Amino acid sequence: MRNAVLSIRRQLPLVLLGAGLAVASLAVPVLAAGGEGGDATPTCAKGKVYDTKSKKCVSKNSSAVPDKDRTEYAFALAEAGRYEEALEILDTLKNPNTKEAWNYRGYATRKLGRTDEGISYYKKSVALDPKYAKVREYLGEAYVIKGQIDLAKEQLITIKSICGTTCEEYQDLQEAIEKPSKT
């Protein structure tokens, strides 16, 4: 009996630590890369969205969260591999007709394997801002997936005219063209 009690006492801190981590993971947003500048945007539990003003996760239906926050949050979800959730957040935008919203919708759908649908969203983003390098990169990556390297190279040339050859968008698309994989 004494050995059983000692065993439980030794394991108790580990059990409590594990329980504490589980509770903490529900309360504290997790940081994920996102945003145009590569800023870390927290991701929250499903059904929530990160509000930069309050610095909290709130209901995705909260009217207090502006479209800009929702759009950046959707991209953070997509980069975290939560593509369906990203699309759900984009569906809550008051104004879904922005270059970023179309781009991120294209990104999430492409990552879900719906490449042609993603391309259609990228083209809507391009129509709103032909000099938006990030959408050009993603559109080029979609063309690589489809094996349309000539169209991907056209996007690379366009990116070069926008930001040169040292910007991240140019380098990422160039790498995708040179080493095609699941982009």
UniProtKB/TrEMBL annotation:
Stretch forming the signal peptide: 1-32
SUPFAM superfamilies listed in its UniProt record: TPR-like (SSF48452)
Entry coiled-coil feature ranges: none
TPR repeats: 99-132
Superkingdom to which the source organism belongs: Bacteria
Gene3D superfamilies (alphabetical): Tetratricopeptide repeat domain (1.25.40.10)
UniProt entry keywords in alphabetical sequence: Signal, TPR repeat
Protein name per UniProt: Uncharacterized protein
